[in-house]
């Protein structure tokens, strides 16, 4: 009869490495919390499509809530994130969806974002709205 010890050890090492990797990747983005608007627009009167929010947990759009962003990969100030939102803007539950985006942090108050397939090409720049928390 073969011992299961090597398999248990391997499973334990794999579980520990996944747990450690998960905790490292769950760090928040280095951005101030608040409402962001496209950099070329004024905060007041901006259309909803030009807004993003960051609460330290997730980077969401104007119709999202209960968002959680996970850092998939990071190089310097460039972060590939996967964001899942579990509710619509009014708080009503929705089937969670996950989007992939690349965030280029320019400062704690500004960033550029592109969908996961665009890399550093294209994208939209955002700035923090004054008084936003």
From TrEMBL:
Taxonomic source organism: Methylobacterium brachiatum
**The organism's place on the tree of life at top rank:** Bacteria
Q: Mind listing the UniProt keywords for this protein, alphabetically? A: Signal
The molecule here is called DUF3617 family protein
Q: Which residues form the signal peptide?
A: 1-21
The answer, when asked if Signal is one of the entry's keywords, is yes
